[in-house]
Amino acid sequence: MADRADARTWMHRGIFVALAFWIIVFQLVPLDMRPANWAGPDLLLAATLLWVARKPAYLPVPVIAGFFLMADFLFMRPPGLWTLLVVLLTETIRRQHREFRNMTLVVEWGTIAIGIIGITLINRLIIALVMAPQAPFGLAIMEMSATIVVYPLVALFAHFLLGVSRAAPGEVGRRGQPL
To answer: pTM of the prediction?
Structure first.
């Protein structure tokens, strides 16, 4: 039987939903009409991976899949490919969330970086196999690198301003369920 989520969990889910909407809208609003020479970080990916690594109960799979599928349509990516890769990565992290409790930020950052590199390269490979048009390789590497570099800043923001911190070993929820 599924555990019911308490008010704190629902509050953090709401915070993530609001943050995800803000990130998507911010990326859609044109600040300059000239084409960009650089690619910024994928803040939605960094925030999602952080949320799942720190508090997996705060972010269920349908929320992740819904936001990334919506982003696929809005950013004109192949629908569902990036979503599938992100869901697979988040579920891999979710399965190992107990190991993330004892990791230092540097080890967590490295683990997340390996996952980001993996899904980026798999995404590029699949798009190349079906011969669909894709962004230049340099821009994809730039976005991937920027996402990896910005992860610790997202972690600090989430920890100090949003209250998304690691569960301590032995920490239990309001109803006594292990976190």
So the answer is: 0.85
